[in-house]
């Protein structure tokens, strides 16, 4: 049958999206392991066992790749925080933050989340940096506002919401630095234990 | 008197040390604000209002400067942790960690501590990187062993000492990312509040 020999436009589009993600993922790993300045597009091509021109079929430049990797990491945090912030119902601020912080811990063990923390937007040109920082600020504000909700409903003890949000972000982001995918601890165990250190210290 | 016109060798030596530290401090600030790759020795010279050749009178290269800045940051942590670890007396593990974590928070608001966290040894050639990582591991082990002491004496609840040491290091190191010397919060307030988030969650 022809279907097995010639792909439909939809199949080609899906395949292209998959290949582009594979390029970004390989680059995110390389940036996290070797640093942005220590990684060439040849390194990324080598990891995928393709040629450098093949890479350029999916991305424009090394800057373009990092921008996308950081954006994908931030979009995971943005979606997770938007979902928890929008939640109605009776959950306290602290309960909702517990869910969100647990998700945060998982995200920073993944390729794009790890690249977001270990490399971030700093090496990018001003325009890209500005755009990503705007997204970052929105996420930061959402975390802070959930802390404020928790203080208001009594589930979190009175404290400086900005400092608590930063302390939690630091404890969780640090996971990206020490997490070893081949090590004995699963992302789940790490998330549970790290979140418990934060949560147990701030109950109202 | 001749003493006011010609300096003694001791005075010359002291002055040289002061000037070298000024070079390192200006570089540490530039690296933290602009990134290592975004900083040239011309930038450092500009900050000190001297010429680049003057800088070379005190340091060999940009790598040499970063290596010294990171070492100075690590030496502050090393000295603080060694002092607390060596302490005899009746203080519990948690009390000793409270002192040490508070000191840690102060160190990462200072020029060399900030550079240690924000830039670190990653951009350096393998030999320098290895040397600094050895020092880092020694400090890490000391933190972990104090957590173990606290669990053993009952002042810290049973938990994974490695994960607790990392969570605390993350919450505290993150201060280097958001602390603003011109902002309303003093290092002292930041240290007290951040350490309380950690300590209150782990009591035995």
3D structure, described in words:
Two copies of one chain form a homodimer. By secondary structure, the first copy, chain A, is mainly alpha-helical. The first copy, chain A, has one domain: Orthogonal Bundle (Tetracycline Repressor, domain 2), CATH 1.10.357. In chain A, 71% of the residues lie in helices and 0% in strands. The first copy, chain A, is built from ten helices and no strands. The longest helix of chain A is centred in the C-terminal third of the chain and has 27 residues, at 126-152. The first copy, chain A, is elongated and about 60 Å long. Chain A starts with 8 loop residues before the first helix and ends with a helix. In chain A, 38% of the residues are buried. The interface between A and B is medium-sized, with 32 and 32 residues.
Brief summary:
In chain A, 71% of the residues lie in helices and 0% in strands. Chain A has helices at 9-34, 41-48, 52-56, 62-86, 93-107, 111-118, 126-152, 161-173, 175-178, 187-200. Chain A starts with 8 loop residues before the first helix and ends with a helix.
- CATH superfamily (homologous) name of chain A: Tetracycline Repressor, domain 2
Instruction: Name the CATH architecture of chain A.
Output: Orthogonal Bundle
CATH fold-level label of chain A: Tetracycline Repressor, domain 2
Main sheet specs of chain A: none
Distance from first to last alpha carbon of chain A: 67 Å
Rounded Rg of chain A:
20 Å
Please report the two chains with the greatest interface, counting residues with C-beta closer than 8 angstroms to the partner's C-beta: A-B, 32 and 32 residues
Give the helices and strands of chain A as they follow along the chain.
Answer: HHHHHHHHHH
How much strand of chain A?
under 5%
Number of separate structural domains of chain A: 1
Mean pLDDT of chain A: 94
User: Which stretches of chain A are low in confidence, meaning pLDDT under 50 for 5 or more residues running?
Assistant: none
Q: List the quaternary state of the chains.
A: homodimer
Q: CATH top level of chain A?
A: Mainly Alpha
Q: Judging from the principal axes of the Cα atoms, what is the shape of chain A? A: elongated
**Helix-strand category of chain A:** mainly alpha
Helix content of chain A: over 70%
Number of helices of chain A: 10
Organism (chains A, B): Enterovirga rhinocerotis
GO molecular function, one term (chains A, B): DNA-binding transcription factor activity
Keywords (chains A, B): DNA-binding, Repressor, Transcription, Transcription regulation
Domain HTH tetR-type (chains A, B): 17-77
């Amino acid at each position: 049958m022809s279907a097995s020999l010639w792909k439909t436009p939809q199949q080609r589009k899906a395949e292209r999206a998959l290949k582009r993600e594979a390029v970004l993922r390989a680059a995110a790993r390389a940036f996290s392991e070797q640093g942005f300045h220590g990684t060439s597009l040849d390194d990324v091509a080598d990891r995928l066992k393709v040629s450098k021109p093949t890479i350029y079929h999916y991305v424009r430049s090394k800057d373009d790749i990092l921008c996308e990797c950081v954006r994908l990491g931030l979009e995971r945090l943005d979606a997770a925080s938007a979902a928890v912030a929008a939640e109605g119902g009776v959950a306290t601020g602290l309960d909702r933050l517990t869910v969100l912080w647990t998700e945060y811990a998982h995200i920073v063990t993944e390729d794009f989340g790890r690249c977001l923390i270990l490399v971030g937007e700093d090496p990018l040109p001003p325009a890209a940096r500005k755009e990503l920082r705007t997204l970052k600020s929105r996420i930061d504000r959402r975390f802070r506002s959930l802390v404020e909700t928790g203080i208001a409903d009594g589930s979190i003890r009175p404290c400086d919401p900005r400092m608590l949000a930063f302390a939690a972000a630091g404890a969780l982001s640090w996971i990206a630095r020490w997490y070893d995918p081949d090590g004995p601890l699963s992302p789940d165990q790490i998330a549970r234990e790290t979140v418990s250190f934060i949560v147990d210290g701030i109950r109202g």
